[in-house]
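User: Hey, quick favor. My workstation is busy. Could you predict this chain's structure for me?
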Amino acid sequence: MLVVLAIAASIFAASPAVAARLDSWRFERDRNQLNFRTTGNVQPKAQLLSNPTRLIIDLPGTTLGQTTVRERVGGTIREIRVGQFERQTSRIVVELAPGYTLNPDQVQFRGSSPSQWTVQLPTPQPEVAISPTQTPVPPPPAVTVNSTLLQGIEVLDEGFILRTSGPTPEIDLRWSTDRTWVTLDLPGVKLSPQITERVRRVDRLGVNRLEAIQVSDSPLLSRVLLNLNDTRRNWQAQVTDLGEIVIWPQGQTPPSSSSLPSLATIQSVELANDGTSVVVNSDRPVGYKTEWDIQTLAYKITLFSSQLAQPPRELRTPSQSSLLWVRTIEEDPETVVVLVQPAAGIQVGGLSHPSGNQLRVQLQPNSIPETPAQTPPTVAVGERSLPIAVPPPTTQTPAPPTSTPAPSTPRVPTTSRRVVVIDAGHGGRDPGAVGIGGLREKEVVLDISRQVAEILERNGVTVVMTRQDDRTIDLAPRTQLANRVNANLFVSIHANAISMSRPDVNGLETYYFSSGQRLAQTIHRSMLRSFSNMRDRGVRRARFYVLRHTNMPAVLVETGFVTGRDDARMLANPTERTRMAEAIAQGILQYIREGR
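Assistant: No problem, here it is.
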């Protein structure tokens, strides 16, 4: 049996900034093999969840829209679902039939290219089934970071509405064999401590009672049960655009609330402990996520289903504080954002929740900046569970044939995760150098930088970019970002220029200030290997701001002269820019591999 599904173009909601889309997938039942293809490069992430057993495959940087596609398979594989888990993460779910599980160590991923992947599943094995009425695990008072929060349950004449905040929830609706129970599983969802009435008498629509259970906290799993006295009805569930889950009988009008969802109120954002922590107080628990904001380069806390009690403002900080500023913003009528900008030499130690209605950001000195510390928090993908290793694709995107073939990209040891900041020079109001034919440095280096980042990430390196689009960023925030995230390496990418009357001046240059000399030499040699016809202008020491104010090995790469007759022709060619990106990335990876 071969199940094939091409995702219709009408369900995609990709923005121009999203690099990839899920194009098609197929499951070959006789081979127990899943194949999928994307329109752009992707590095999947995978994990195995239980109750029921599901293989979760997340595709970061990939989009489909809100539509969930389901395909029944049969046998030991119940169905395959494809949907949008987060704004820029698509998800493929392979759900096993009840009573079966997989050995996660035997799930094998193979990428024949960055856009073509095969997943080989082992033969499912029987497991012990879990009763839907098992004793629930008492929920702790704290709300898990980056989880979806089930905030309330509304019983209406037409059905039920479950109100959530946070990432769009995944749902799974099932019946018991005697059809007296409907079970709605919500992986990655946590019950709010404010839901105190977890068993409710209903006595309508053929439902005796409704129960809400926190089945597990690791991995997160909530469950809503409907006890039926009318077993003839069929029930259905759907996630709305507002993030609500509606449950209602098939063939009838779905329920809709006459009032807007209740929002949490952010009562205050204040400094505590002599300015070494920021405290967010709310009138109830809230779902949230944390990340580094690419626009302001600040630590960003997004609070879902929330509103401000006071107008947005910037918090004043005393001189010599651990903070430069703290801002509150209403991103939309139902989302509050808190931005925290640490001062130089200060890092974010993490976010905690000492009580259900309070979040605390702890700041601490970066006393040993050259020692890698915690990487910045990122948006969680799915629940915590049994991780499955996904190796990079065996074949990278092929480069066009050249007279000097580039060496194969060295693999980075997976035992040591490295953080590299890629700094695309200039941007926004600052075009950088403008050369022959109006060639602008800011556009050339942004294209090269993006491709360098993609190659490094495919090889297991964590990449932070100072800019990912055309925006104005001063020099200080670029180095502050690198120091704040405790990067291991800093690579600033530029294009050179001289008078337009000197088109004969061409060539490669690489600069360092102190600890970046060997990194500069390694990247420079890699570029020369790929561009043997370019003039070698050498590796030099310079006092550029971004080299003097970073706490890790830092280099500035000049990829050629936009005013040079030969270099400008090369830099204006997208194919040649890709070759340049590969050469720079290969130099970085070689430096990491050699453990320098």
